[in-house]
Amino acid sequence: MIKVLFICHGNICRSPMAEFVLKDMAEKAGLADQLVIDSAATSTEEIGNGIHHGTMSIFRKYHIPCTGHRARQMTRRDYEEYDYLIGMDHWNIRNMSRIAGGDPQDKIRMLLDFTDRAGQEIADPWYTGEFETTYRDMLEGCQGFLAYIREEL
Known about the structure:
By secondary structure, this protein is α/β, with parallel strands linked by helices. It has six helices and four strands, in the order βαβααβαβαα. The chain has a four-stranded parallel beta sheet with strand order 2-1-3-4, with helices on both faces.
């Protein structure tokens, strides 16, 4: 089993989008039973809240199943339990490293690092309102990540 945790600031837009996009891709590729995929926040602002309506509209538009999500904050224990902790921007990465107490096992990455756009960030649609743009970036990142981890499976 490969365990993946997607992380963004509030866990209501980007990280649940990545979580459910990758779950859908893994299901369609016949790999769902080999992956554990979840998401979390670096902040406490949205804990307990559901997925943002803009992300939900993307899920409906592209027929991506999503159920049971409630925002939660990343913990230090997550660093030990997951193989990959994937953030969306440099601010997420800094906060993830702070929460984890560093990254001695090199588990913390940005999603677009698994594409030809390494080092680039996925903009937060909470601020931009560009959920479609975020979805396209997420799709590209998840496709690249799935190709990357297929080599491990």
